[in-house]
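TA notes, week 10

Several of you asked for a full example with nothing omitted. So below is the full record: structure tokens for the whole chain, then the designed sequence directly under it. When grading your own attempts, check the secondary structure regions first.
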């Protein structure tokens, strides 16, 4: 009975603490037309202290969405355009010789911000991608012999273009795994596109105002951790991830030859964290199976390796996740 009381109290507290979610949504909707899923995904990533990879053809407001989110929070923002000639030093900084001091001093790079927009991340070579990786994983960078802690919150929002793959450097699996979510962005509906055209033709383009401080985000992340997740939901999450590794144990033997490797333990961790953040966004103090199902594709799509057989039969990770969600028993 005490749990029920706790849940009720927790629910009321989460409803109070999550009021700012509506503020962010309102500001972002001023600038971004439609793309509800994209806005939700950006907020989930922000509240879970994760990084996000957005994939879509050019012109779908990927960069605009990230810039707008950064504007709603009074934080430092850096945009880095990834190009084939970019060097790690352009990202993290370097040592430069000061004639005045007669010694080397550190010139910090654009990575020293709260929000990093890594635009077209697959256009830069592996050494630049790996420099970004240390920052993403360790929340620090090494310049010379010294390591420097990055600001908190620190969030990498990367974009990649699925077309024009010539001259690009696809992210290896180990790097993809560091992104909490991979979100596929599609074209807007006809009515939405009409609004977008009007917005761009008007004299004043809308602008998102700053409604939060970085301290509010850090505080909200602690609250998200308090969202209640039942043991049955935890087992449901594990069943979904294990079904990507051992499909034959879940009546999905047909996928045994299609899956090269399944989700790592990071997949289970991120599924649980994202489900909590999704419940928080929906102003609820507890996780329900629908929360897990809502974020499942974004967490798993870049964590399942497909065999040549799957590619030959045009089976995608989306098909596999759909099948898993339809087969694994819901608590």
């Amino acid at each position: 009975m005490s749990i029920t009381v706790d849940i009720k109290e927790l629910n009321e507290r989460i409803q109070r603490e999550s009021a700012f979610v509506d503020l962010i949504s309102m500001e972002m909707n001023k600038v971004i037309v439609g793309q509800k899923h994209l806005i939700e995904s950006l907020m989930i990533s922000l509240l879970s202290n994760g990084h996000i990879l957005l994939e879509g053809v050019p012109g779908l407001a990927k960069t605009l969405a990230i810039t707008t989110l950064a504007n709603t929070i009074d934080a430092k923002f850096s945009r880095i355009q990834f190009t084939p000639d970019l060097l790690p030093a352009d990202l993290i900084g370097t040592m430069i010789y000061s004639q005045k001091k007669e010694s080397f001093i550190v010139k910090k790079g654009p990575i020293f911000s709260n929000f990093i927009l890594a635009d077209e991340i697959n256009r830069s070579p592996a050494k630049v991608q790996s420099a970004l990786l240390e920052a993403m994983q360790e929340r620090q960078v090494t310049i010379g012999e010294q390591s420097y802690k990055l600001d908190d919150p620190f969030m990498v929002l990367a974009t990649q273009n699925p077309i024009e793959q010539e001259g690009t450097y696809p992210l290896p699996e180990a790097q993809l795994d560091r992104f909490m979510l991979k979100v596929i962005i599609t074209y807007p509906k006809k009515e939405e596109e009409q609004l977008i055209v009007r917005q761009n033709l008007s004299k004043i383009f809308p602008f998102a105002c700053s409604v939060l401080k970085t301290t509010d985000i850090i505080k909200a992340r602690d609250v998200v951790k308090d969202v209640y997740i039942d043991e049955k939901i935890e087992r449901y999450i594990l069943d979904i991830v294990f079904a990507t590794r051992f499909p034959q144990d879940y009546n999905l033997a047909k996928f045994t030859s299609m899956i090269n490797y399944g989700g790592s333990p990071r997949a289970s961790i991120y599924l649980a964290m994202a489900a909590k953040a999704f419940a928080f966004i929906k102003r609820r103090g507890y996780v329900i199976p629908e929360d897990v199902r809502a974020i499942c594709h974004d967490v798993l799509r870049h964590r399942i390796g497909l065999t040549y057989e799957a590619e030959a039969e045009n089976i995608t990770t989306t098909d596999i996740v759909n099948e898993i969600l339809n087969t694994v028993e819901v608590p």
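The chain has a mean pLDDT of 85. Use that as a sanity check on your answer.
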